[in-house]
Amino acid sequence: MNSDSDLQIAGDILEVTHLLQAPREHPATVAEFVGLARSLAEDRSQWEHLVRYDATTRWYHRLRTGPGYEVWLLSWLPGQGSGLHDHGRSSGVLTVLDGTLTERTERGTRALRAGAQRVFAPGYVHEVVNDALEPAVSLHVYYPGLTEMPMHTAPHCEARALPGAVTA
Hints:
The protein is mainly beta. It has helices spanning 6-10, 30-42, and strands at 59-66, 69-76, 91-98, 100-105, 108-113, 117-120, 127-129, 136-143. The strands form two sheets. The chain has a five-stranded antiparallel beta sheet, with helices on one face. Strands 5-4-7 form a three-stranded antiparallel beta sheet, with no helix packed on it. Strand 4 (100-105) and strand 5 (108-113) form a beta hairpin.
């Protein structure tokens, strides 16, 4: 039986620099957009000082743009919501930074606490609302950049819970 480990056989891959792929300057895959959202969420110094709260409407700020994508920072006071909508031809990643948001879809309702992420494709219909008693902050990555947000009527969205979901 051979006792050599894979590392001993192959050597240290980090030493074979011609095999390493250079990190991309901008994300291009769903996984890379999720990674971008996570890295921004973890680095509060990039967004925390920008957050504002508006008693009349959700506050939003475009945090970053890149080739074919946008990153938005949103704040939600208790009771504020998006209304039932989709994102046109854009896909996206929603990451809750602080607080708890409730997402409602035709499949049900789910509570999204700080750290939760949702990935969605074009045409995904949902409503996001702050049903909690504390403010919430979220980060949204859209690719391609958001150019439309068609609103939908309420009958599309039922208020039943998803199996295994924690509801607010």
